[in-house]
What does this fold into?
Amino acid sequence: MPPMIRYSIMVLTGLALLLLGSRLVIDAAAGIRQRGTLERIEDKYGPLDPSSLARETPPADSDNRVLPIRAAAEAMVLSSEGQDSDRNLVGEISRFRSPEIEARDLERLRGIVESNSIVFDLLDQAVDRPDADWDLPYHMGFATEIPKLIRYVSMSKLLAASARFHITDGNVDQASRSIVSGLTVASTLGAESVLIMQLVRLSATQWSLAALRELLATHELDERTLERLARAIDEATVPDGIVRGLMGEMKGMHSAFVQMEHGKHLPMGDEAMLERNAAVRWIMRPLTRLSHQSFLTRMDRMVQYTDLPPPRRRIAFPTHPLEEEFSWWDVQSKIMLPNLANAVNRADVHAARVMLAQTAVALERFRLRHGAYPAELGALDASGIDPYTGRLPIYSRDASGYTLESSVANADPTTYLGTSDPILVWTVKR
It folds into this structure.
């Protein structure tokens, strides 16, 4: 064999051994980092197996709100074709953008509400039940099948539109019935560790609170109705809902990383190259392990960040967890995590809306008992705390009523989404 060829073979063999050795060292180091992070995360949150998200003891069918809610969603009748469809009309009215409903639309809405009477009857059953469980197959990890949320979005809009119809018609009992049903639907979505369900919960609650805001501004309610509304608001609050959703994302993606590392089928598209080619999978394993470790670390910090009230976050996290620099191999985190900032932001605005609703109902109950609104919110038995300041919300009296608002209503809209939302300012005149 010519010396040059022999030399070339020796060089290539040396390079191959060097690369192999480097890969083995990097893989071992990545494995140590990965195992250390897994142990730390599991010590803090418990098992990362997605099946741990399921309830150990599901409620009895007679106690489970989800069953009549599912039946109501199936029974709902809304035309969805064309620009002038029932779904579009209900969606527009549920947003409370226009001060009044046109007479033609009011009659159409009356027909829609009457044709869906069974929906309201079924939801009455849900309101009276004490528990909720959607019985999701969490063992499927990232591929967990969830309900067709579009139907529950449409039903929540129908309930808000129904409330607005009854407010316009002067029927306080039916308006409050629709609002309570809407809040009940929202509260059941908050029972699950699925981020998209938590985000739908925020929207469903928003539409119901918009209806409540208009109801309080236009009608005086009795103590029984106010007590029922207060209970429904409390049930729909779910203060740890987004944290629960983030935990679901963490455990689901952990399961996906484990499958990726072992070359099992991933539910993210076509048969993956990592599944088909054992050699490629072996070569890529260090990067998979490093990405896994980095994702869990960032999700842990994101959960910690979200679990704190906004004023304390600025102290505990001078730099937002999602503004920290990503490593070049951290592809999954770069794709997934930036979207979580919007979810946390929406949860903060939601907390402000709920706080104002709770306080507004407490003000009405105070007025019923004492004949006038209090001079200060400190006189209330229970007043909400503005999540953005950690203090009481902004409250001002005038001769005939009051204005109640969260500090986020005046915040920088580039920092807090939804700051132009009218539900962040409640004005009641008597």
